[in-house]
Design a protein that fits this description.
Blueprint: H1 6-11, H2 32-37, H3 43-48, H4 50-64, E1 68-70, H5 77-80, E2 87-89, E3 93-95, H6 114-117, H7 119-131, E4 137-143, H8 145-154, H9 162-170, H10 172-196, E5 200-205, H11 213-219, H12 221-233, E6 238-242, H13 249-255, E7 259-261, H14 268-274, E8 279-284, H15 293-307, E9 313-317, H16 327-342
Parallel strand pairs: 1-4, 4-5, 5-6, 6-7, 7-8, 8-9
Antiparallel strand pairs: 2-3
Helix pairs in contact: 4-7, 8-10, 9-10, 10-12, 12-13, 15-16
């Protein structure tokens, strides 16, 4: 009988031998081998090659011996399959030169087959699944609908999402039309990742914490629920994550997700008390990886102690690894978590 990866068993709140550990953005700019591979290539070009995408995905697993490989892609990757050009601008983020702001703009959105536009990522998943041990998981992921819609409407990263909220309040038909189209794209995208070998899917809604509970439930939750239901249909667990979401945790859990991701702003035990019937993931402050080891260790120990050894805790950061992070700190932290879980 094949035993499911440790991360998957934890997501299902089974009693496990130790706490699994992986890190958001573990594949990327904190690793010198990644920076070397990326010379002369854009992120999207890297993702188009199954071999290169798989190599970047596997680099942190080899170096840090974590319990999962999160696929190297961008939350805007599936948007390319919708016929919307996106540029990834260094030190800025995703930039859309022709934003979606009117009902007429919705006509520019097309629906494509993910086996075609995401062939590189799906091929990489197959390679990564073959290369990992059976106890290690492949984490596929998808950008949350609010966050992706935010980039499409604002045209670039935003702190206040004024154009987004103006559309939600004054032109709700266009807002819901855009969210429906994103959802229609994202459901087959995550299902194709599972078919290729992903063991678990994370819905990564970075900026959804900018919304009130009422706005989240009216304008976002129905679409996140459809995506997460699509993951459930194909039989793997899901992680539902956002930042600034301390007030939204119950609403996010109602929308779906076997695991609720907690950011660093709320103590893990308080966050878990908001969603007691789910597993949780988190939630060390990423900036502690820039601190001396003694302070980093104390922060990690605090997160683990707040979990009280209950089944269902996945150790991770409260957001992604920061580019200046020393890789040796990450390796040491992963080892600490593994040893803590076995003591």
């Amino acid at each position: 009988m094949t035993v499911a990866p440790l991360l998957v068993r934890t997501a299902r709140r089974e009693q496990t031998e130790r706490t699994p550990v992986w890190f958001m953005r573990q594949a990327g700019r904190s690793l010198p081998e990644y920076r070397e591979l990326r010379v002369g290539r854009t992120l999207f070009e890297t993702c188009e090659s199954p071999e290169l995408c798989a190599e970047v995905t596997l680099q942190p697993v080899r170096r840090h011996d974590v319990d999962a490989a999160v696929m190297f892609a961008d939350i805007m990757s599936p948007v390319l399959g919708m016929g919307i050009p996106v540029k990834l601008v260094e030190n800025v983020g995703p930039v859309v030169d022709e934003p979606i702001r009117t009902a007429a703009d919705l006509a520019r959105i097309t629906q494509s087959d993910p086996t075609e536009y995401a062939a590189g990522i799906l091929g990489a998943i197959r390679i990564v699944r073959r290369e990992l041990r059976p106890d290690q998981a492949v984490v596929g992921f998808c950008g949350g609908p609010f966050t992706v819609a935010g980039y499409l409407i604002e045209g670039k990263p935003s702190r206040d999402f004024l154009l987004v909220k103006r559309m939600m309040y004054s032109d709700p038909a266009t807002w819901h039309g855009l969210m429906a189209r994103l959802t229609d794209c994202f459901v087959p995208y995550v299902q194709a990742q599972v078919a290729a070998g992903a063991d678990i899917i994370q819905l990564f809604d970075s900026w959804v914490g900018n919304l009130s509970v009422n706005d989240y439930e009216e304008f976002v939750a129905p679409y996140s629920a459809r995506i997460l239901a699509g993951v459930k249909e194909v039989g793997v667990p899901s992680i539902h994550f956002g930042t600034g979401t301390a007030t939204l945790l119950r609403s996010m859990a109602a929308a779906g997700g076997d695991v609720i991701g907690l950011d660093w702003r709320i103590p893990l035990d308080r966050g878990w008390a908001e969603v007691p019937d789910r597993a949780v993931q988190g939630n060390l402050d990423s900036t502690l990886l820039l601190a001396p080891w003694e302070r980093l260790e104390a922060g990690a120990r605090d997160v683990l102690e707040r979990a009280h050894g209950k089944p269902g805790h996945i150790f991770n950061l409260g957001h992604g690894i920061l580019p200046p992070t020393d890789p040796d700190q990450i390796t040491r932290l992963a080892a600490f978590v593994r040893e803590y879980g076995q003591s």
